[in-house]
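sorry for the late reply, my laptop died twice this morning and i had to redo everyting from scratch. anyway the thing you sent over, i finally got around to it. pasting the sequence first so we're on the same page, its 401 residues, then the predicted structure underneath. double check i copied it right bc i was rushing
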Amino acid sequence: MKKKAPLLLALVMSVVIVSACGKNDDTKNATVVASGGGKDAVAAKAEAPRPVRFMQVGMSSLSDISYLPGEVRPRFEQRYGFRVAGKISRRLVDVGQEVKAGQVLAVLDSQDVLPAINAQAAQVEVAKTDFKLQQSELKRQQELRDKGFVSGAALERQAATSDASDARVKAALSQLASAQNGLNFQTLRADKAGVVIAVDAEAGSVVSAGQSVVRVAQLGEKEIIVNVPERAVGSLKTAKGFAAHFDAIPGKLYAAKLRELSPAADAASRTYTARLSIVGADDALKLGMSSTVRLDLGAAEAIVVPNTALYTRDNSTRVWLVDRATETVKAVEIKTGESTNDGISVISGLKPGDLVVTAGANLLQLGQKVRLLDAPVAAAVPAVPIARASVSTAAKESSKP
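ok and here's the structure:
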């Protein structure tokens, strides 16, 4: 009898445990029934609306601005070269030196010119001597003609010979003047005052007629030379205004005006050369300074979204649009334009009034439910009290016979 007592106690404990397990299972089942099923409850918990930030897009006024590099150059620049060929014996100016009108810039070696001048002077003397001889002969023929010893035809021939001799004298004198001009052209002088900006030939160099030797820029009006790419030529013509900024002169802008635009592109760089006159140029501007020219292309209307709203997939730029009715998101491909201080402009793909997700774009999925953080959240009925009421009802029904 004593041996059966422990066995009986064990059986009683087993029955109690099984009953408790049955009640726990009923409670879990009632909870599942109240929530609408096991799998559906897990899915509902996984698909909880994701909180996102958003914005309602609209048209914004943007200032369309473009920038081009440039260089300060003189408005007028002369390339001085000798009118005759020769060897440079002296160069009398250096780069950066200011020159006056009539100042000597360089001199050629005159060794090749002086012999030609001497030879031409001798030809002039020969022609004059022959002319004197022909004049004397003409006078003698006239005296003989008056005495009847010479015919009129002979006198006429001598007069013609004398005239030809006179013409040869004049031709020799002209050739001598040309040779002397060649000597004068051996000296290169500045036509106007300015500053030497380049030297293209040094002393000892043999130059041809017209070859550039010294470049002089006139002191006065300055301008900016800009190399304009093909795609920006149209914008340059329609620009509302120009402003130049110089790194060497911080904090100051110079207004400029378009003076000249080349009709043909450079063969090497494929750019069009434009010249901009600087308004109010002062002594702070030095030739050769680099500048940045700002082109004011006027104001334009465009939709602007922040960069955080963009995401890339399949090599295309997209944004997430929010559907207010279903509170879900869908991806829309867009075409972007220029960057601004507030974000990036959108050329196509959006229209005013669209709701665009501005944060967490890379974490969303197609058709996912979202909760707008910036919008008022509707009051929801707590889920836990409903579950408890369902459990109580199920318990009462299970307690009925």
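Confidence is low (pLDDT under 50) at residues 15-45, 375-401.
thats about all i looked at so far, will dig more tmrw
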